[in-house]
Amino acid sequence: MVKIMAVYDEDALYARRLAEYVNRRETIPFTAMAFSNLERLKEYGDSHEIEILLVGETVKAAADEVKAGLKMVLCGGEFSIGKEEPSIYRFQSGEGILREIMTCYCTAPPEPALALSGMGAQILGVYSPVNRCGKTAFALTLAQVLSRTESVLFISLEEFAGFEALLGEDVKQDFSDVLYLCRQGSFNWMKLRAMVCSVGQVDMIPPAAYGEDLDQMEPEELALLLRRIARESGYRRLVVDMGHMGRGSAALLDCCDGVYLPVLEDPVSRAKLQAFDRYLSAAGAVSLKEKICRLRLPKTCPLSSMENCMDQLLWGEMGDFVRALLEGGGGND
Known about the structure:
Shape: elongated
């Protein structure tokens, strides 16, 4: 069943552009429609169910009789604190508006029919037992290149990801909140959608603010969580930057459809890779070995700053390497 988000505003251009933005977001389970005429909105509402109605503050009173599951007021100044309808500041990014909508909408448990249908996302893990091998740079670049043609969600399981400069200061929720919801049994994909931030063309859940939150979940639990996100979120690909998971890595890596494993050629790195191979053999992870694609990443120029690192990665040596990798469909082991 198609869920309708209606946008009614005195500014027809604003309503149309907001509706177009919503409809371009593949992971939003609504079809948005713009209205600038009250009678047409009423006529439509009489014969169709409106799940969400976004209404401009100057025309709110006139639209009071229009039925909708959730009404939100698009305000240009002060929020309507204490009013029945929640408010959204209209002069912010489309991503910010969507995030507030989804946060408000998912305070009530979603209907089962709201889960996006389909085969679920392919999970691509990026992992290495070797330090300083370019793993995170590769994972970010991989997500960017894939996002040019399909919807991609990036997830970092690093204990200290260091993405603060990349994401800015307005991050209110992160992967620690996802883990909390999971432990409480109240996780659902609509709540996840409200946590997602966009960096360039890549959607990502901000990394956990407290690395110890990751340690409180067993690898098997994290694997189940990733599978659920892949199944319910509506994305086509999940790119997961794995942290150093120690002896629990096999269970978590095994939930991936494919694993990219950057390597280095120095003696210490080779010894670590040999130890990792022995671990996989001892764990009986034969099928996992078949999923792993070992990569010798290119030497890249140092990034000048985190603020523009996404563009530097996409259009530099790493971007060229990833594009060639995806076109060739294999690694260089």
